[in-house]
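Hey, can you fold this one?
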Amino acid sequence: MSRREEVLAVMEKVRSVPVGALEAIRLLHAPEVDVDKVVAVIERDMGWTANLLRLANSSYFGCRRSVGSVREAFLRLGSKNLFHLITASAVIPILRGTIQTREGGTITQWQHSLGVAKATEKMAEASGEEASQHAITGAMIHDIGKVALVQNLRADMVKVDELVRDAKISPLLAERMILGVDHAEVGARLLAKWNLPQTIVEVVRRHHDLPDTENKEDRAVELVRLGNMAAWVAEKREDAGELYVARFLASAVERLGVNDRTALMIAHDVEELHARGAGLEF
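Sure. Predicted structure:
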């Protein structure tokens, strides 16, 4: 068995998101959304309900007064935001871990995920469009493969970090060299196994790629890719120095027509989101 096959075999054992979450996501994809059915599915799981309400009341969703029930969250936020909320709250228990910044600080993986989602939304607005439901949800869970690898193959991921540092190569390439597979593919395989919509699966699989921006599905990939870059700039990652910022700004204008000032403002918005504690502690 190759190293790639060994890694994928381990990933097959990663726990799934709650069954109720998958059911709720399918209900929200129906031509006519049945609010009562969606609420009933969510409220069967008290832990999930608590996570959902805490997230609904976070600064990410910007509610001006407290949301006290799942039904109220639905009515106040709408089905599109509820779709994001359901997916996000379902994967909160999985998206554990912290990220090191260039200045010696840390942010949570969950804060990063919300930051990428917000930047994706802002990038779409700046380019004169609205980010699709699948783009925002894909942004929230784009790094689920990385988290799964760290949680289940920690020693190998330490080797990946060492290779990145010593050989000055990208984390994606280092993962492929050490594991035979990268976190984007691992994440996509997990989401496909959990029967999430194929568009979300592809966003996660290709969030480091350079897609065809004229294609609707590829547009979602591009928005998430640049949203991720904006978040890296905001978070002052160790490998997001001046050259990375320049590449981000060049991509924003070339791929989406977003000028430097606007792109930097989007990164600043993510920084402020983190400062307000939008990621919450779960």
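The chain has a mean pLDDT of 84. Let me know if you want another pass with a different chain boundary.
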